[in-house]
Amino acid sequence: MQIEPQAFDRVLSSMCTEPHPVAREAAERFLATNPGDPGTYPTVATLEDEAIERLGEIVGLDDPAGYVASGGTEANVQAVRIARERATGPDPNVVVPESGHFSFQKAAELLDVELRIVPTNDHHRASLEAVRAAADDETALIVGVAGSTEYGRVDPIPELGVIAREVDAMLHVDAAWGGFVLPFTDYEWHFGHAPVDTMAIDPHKMGQAAIPSGGLVVRSSELLDELAVDTPYLESTSQATLTGTRSGAGVASAVAAMEELWPAGYRSQYVRSQNNAEWLADALEKRGYEVVEPTLPLVAADVPQSTFEALRAKGWRISRTAAGELRIVCMPHVTRAMLASFVGDLDRLEVRASVPVASDD
Ligand SMILES: *Cc1c(COP(=O)(O)O)cnc(C)c1O
Which sequence positions carry the modification called N6-(pyridoxal phosphate)lysine (predicted)? Predict the structure, then answer.
């Protein structure tokens, strides 16, 4: 049995990363705590309040409510659940751009709401015309993605907010991946920029916390009440989370990471990651590949299937978009040296591919 985790030195496909040392240490200390039972584990419950306060600062919310979830999936499912509880009609629907994460599919199936998936435009952002056409009186929720999984794109959140208000729907922003880099960009994406009701933002992605550490942040605690169920055998009276027992490691590491890194540490990490993404995009373009410009630290490029397979065979952990492009996420553990080594491997493969096959005569 392999008891060592794999190294990160060839991981270019993950949206997660090595936790920051302070986050790792906090996670270890709080491994055996359960914020799902705050009456018994009050220290970690207090830390969770602090986590939400700190997340509120990042997402432009003075008096935030929410909790540390298992990840973006849970936060998205719960956002759909809140909207469904608030919906007035019998057949609520949720409008999601096709760039939306597959967790909305899970939410729709679990919660029995109709998912209206609408196209993105040429820039991989939600098409406002398509959203407007899909939204109607029965729309409970409009979703905007702030840092999409495949191309790192940010939907026009304020404009989506206008449409949501027109049809009396809620607005959810999925910043699971982008939330810890967007504060250092010019994008309008958060509660202070638009009438956002709920948001997913994952400390365990760009936030450099340990897994599992996701965030559901909501504009007011009444929205969280929509999720609350009574908890007879616990000292606390109700629970809004989807899971019962939860990892205190996620909570403590999120607080430790944010305390250490917000804002200066996250800013310099964003700059490093974005520079790396632009360097890689440039290197790939120079080699004749078609590249989707990295507006956030995520690069997609049209690399032939055979090259992709050969790079995988060399141990590079890389992934593909639905359209088949090579996709590289410039997470904090991805250094310029790693990318240079990756491009070096790519060059060696291409040289071999272009050597004419020796003939027999
Ligand atoms: C990663 C991601 C999710 C899912 O989050 P998990 O933490 O994997 O559950 C949802 N939305 C976006 C945009 C993501 O990048």
Answer: 205
168 alpha carbon to ligand 1 midpoint, in Å? Answer: 26
- State the pLDDT at residue 149: 97
Q: 50 alpha carbon to ligand 1 midpoint, in Å?
A: 22
Which residues fall within 8 angstroms of residue 54, CB to CB, at 6 or more apart?
Answer: 254, 255, 258, 259, 262
142: Cβ contacts below 8 Å, ≥ 6 apart:
94, 95, 131, 135, 160, 163, 164, 167, 169, 170, 171, 172
Does residue 155's CB lie within 6 angstroms of at least one atom of ligand 1? no
Q: Whose CA is nearest to atom 10 of ligand 1?
A: 72
- Global pTM value: 0.96
Contact by Cβ (8 Å): 71, 115:
no
State whether the beta carbon of 145 lies less than 6 angstroms from ligand 1. Answer: yes
* Other Cβ atoms within 10 Å of 60 Cβ, number: 17
SS3 314: coil
Q: Which domains does the chain have, with CATH numbers?
A: 21-261 (3.40.640.10), 264-352 (3.90.1150.10)
Q: Which of 143, 146, 155, 157 is nearest to 105 (CA)?
A: 143
Buried b (16+ CB within 10 A) or exposed e, 139-170: bbbbbbbbbbbbbbbbbbbebbbebbeebebb
User: pLDDT digit string (tens) for 319-331?
Assistant: 999 999 999 999 9
